[in-house]
Each structure stands twice: as C-alpha cells, then as structure tokens.
User: Which sequence fits this backbone?
C-alpha cells in the first residue's frame, strides 16, 4: 500500500475503533474550532545572483485562532501543474476542522498537496503570495510573485500555547500537516523561493507584501487579517541596489514577542 493509502487506512482504523469504543458518548459532534492565521515578514536583504537582484525575506504564519489549522493530503497521486510549474506527485488537500476533543467535525477542499523537489517534502498549494507594490491596495504590483507553496508545521511557540494546544505537527514528510494554536511556522530568507526578482526596479519607496492563503482555501475565525507588509526605500547609488526599512505592519497580539517576531 502506498503511504497515502496507509495514512487513509490508519485514519479509518482509528475512527472505526473510536466509534466502537465511544460511540454512545461521542454521538454528538462538538463545536468546530477554527484557526486564525496571521503573518509576519522580516529580514529583507538584496542578493545578487547570476546577474539578477533578488530581494530575499523571512516569513512566518502564526495561528492565533481557536483550533489548529489542519490539512490532510489524500486520494489519487498524479502529476499536476500549479501556477505554471509542473510537479510529478500531487494529491488533494482537505482542511479538517476539529472540536475540543480532537474530533473532525467539518472538512472543506484546501487546494492541492504535492511533493516539492527543491524542498524535498510535501507542500500545500497557494499558502502565500508575495509582491512588491508602490501602493498597498491600489494598482498593479511592480513585481508579482507566484503563489508560494509551503509545508505546514509547528516551529516556534508563542505565549498563547499555555492557553492552547501543545506541539502537534512535527514534519513535512507526511500527508497530515498543520499549525497548532499558538504556534508559528517559519520560512527563513535562505529558503528557495523566499525571494522576488527586483532587477531593474527604479529607485523609490515600495511595499513588500505577504498575503496568506491567497485563494481562500482555509476557513478561519478571521479571514481578513491574512496580510502583512514592509515599507522600504530602494537606492541605487553604487553598483549594487540597497534598501532601508521605513515601516512595517507590525505584529499581532500573541505573535508579538514570539521567537518568530524579529
Ligand atoms: Cu518546503
């Protein structure tokens, strides 16, 4: 049996066992607890690579909601194309919403899960969109990124963890991924694709923006706070472009002071 089939079998076996063991006690599904993902973006740096000027940056997704963001890949594995890039192994992703006992009480389609050859593990599609813009909300971006794909995993703990869940999502290799309540998932600026090509962009003041879940795959307690930005000035005095940070969208609630917060 494939890994995906094995995961499905384990899920079925556990569910069947739970139904036999606790059928009477857990007949009523509990109240769904939704995640709330907020973003951070930091560590901006220009690197010259192969005659190109790449703006690199670190980003974090932090879950400040009532329940985990849990996404499960499963079903048939087949090649697919995501935003113009072909991948060999893709499958369906489903958001699973849990109640306070950890029962799955709601599911919805959450895009595609696929094996990322550069990162060498499984990713979710359309997790973030990065852009360089002259205005935060108006006009076309100066640099348009592709929709970024990520693995979802608990990395950094915020102070909210005492009130929420403990670490539950450990690795990117499996079909089940997520971010627990109070945990943040980091992508460092050295990671492939944490970059936008700003070659030839004229001097001026710009915003680097980070929009999480740009296709609206995840149901959250608040879908309106998935946006973070950094305002910066771009200089071209010498042979290399330079930037100065002018302002940031800041941190949110328990995300402030977390290890992910620069
Ligand atoms: Cu990855």
Assistant:
């Amino acid at each position: 049996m494939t890994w995906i089939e094995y995961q499905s079998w384990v899920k079925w076996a556990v569910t069947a066992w739970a139904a036999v063991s606790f059928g009477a006690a857990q007949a009523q599904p509990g109240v769904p607890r939704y995640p709330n993902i907020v973003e951070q973006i930091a560590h901006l740096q220009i690197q010259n690579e192969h005659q190109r000027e790449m703006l690199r940056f670190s980003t974090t997704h932090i879950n400040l909601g009532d329940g985990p963001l849990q996404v499960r890949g499963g079903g048939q594995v087949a090649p697919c194309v995501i935003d113009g890039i072909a991948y060999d192994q893709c499958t369906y992703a489903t958001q699973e919403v849990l109640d306070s006992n950890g029962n799955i009480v709601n599911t919805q389609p959450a895009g595609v899960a696929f094996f990322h050859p550069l990162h060498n593990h499984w990713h979710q599609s359309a997790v973030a969109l990065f852009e360089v813009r002259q205005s935060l909300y108006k006009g076309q971006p100066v640099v348009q990124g592709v929709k970024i794909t990520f693995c979802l995993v608990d990395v950094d703990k915020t102070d909210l963890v005492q009130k929420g869940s403990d670490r539950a999502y450990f690795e990117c290799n499996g079909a089940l991924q997520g971010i627990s309540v109070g945990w943040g998932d980091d992508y460092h600026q050295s990671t492939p694709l944490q970059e936008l090509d700003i070659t030839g962009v004229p001097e001026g003041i710009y915003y680097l923006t980070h929009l999480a879940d740009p296709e609206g795959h995840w149901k959250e307690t608040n879908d309106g706070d998935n946006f973070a930005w950094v305002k910066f000035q771009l200089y071209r005095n010498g042979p290399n472009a330079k930037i100065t940070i002018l302002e940031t969208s800041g941190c949110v609630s328990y995300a402030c002071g977390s290890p992910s917060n620069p």
User: Anything to note?
Assistant: Residues 205 and 233 are 4 Å apart (CA to CA). The first helix runs from residue 3 to 22. Residues 30-65+122-168+180-248 form one domain.
